[in-house]
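Recall that a protein's primary structure is simply its ordered list of amino acids. Everything else, from secondary elements to tertiary packing, is in principle encoded there. The following example makes that idea concrete.
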Amino acid sequence: MSDSDPQHPGASPTQLRLIRMSLLTAVVVTGILVSVMVQNDPPRAPELASPLLMVNAAYLIGAMAGILYFQRRHAAEPVRGRRVTFNVIAWAMGESTALFGAVHYLLIGNPVPYLVGLATLIAAFVLVPIRD
């Protein structure tokens, strides 16, 4: 197989860096907004703490499994356009854990799920890097 696919050229490395920064910026800004909201108002649904923690943990495990799956696919893929797709999918899984954690933070008032989600997003960036 060749390293390029004329039908699916994929994003350039610069475009991938912009996508990555956009994902990170959205997560950080959301975290800041939620933090301000939680400081001004009491938690919105403290009764959901236990069930939401279990859902968040299961979601995090699933997302990490997905990120590791796409890391392996990305590392073995010779076609650049497909690698780009794996980049974006893995990063989106990391972003979704952070956004889910932000919702948890907003409802419960505990920032830990958000911070774990943010760490998962950064791990996705490291595990599924941009390959020029």
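Helices lie at 13-40, 49-76, 80-108, 112-127. Residues 80-108 form the longest helix (29 residues).
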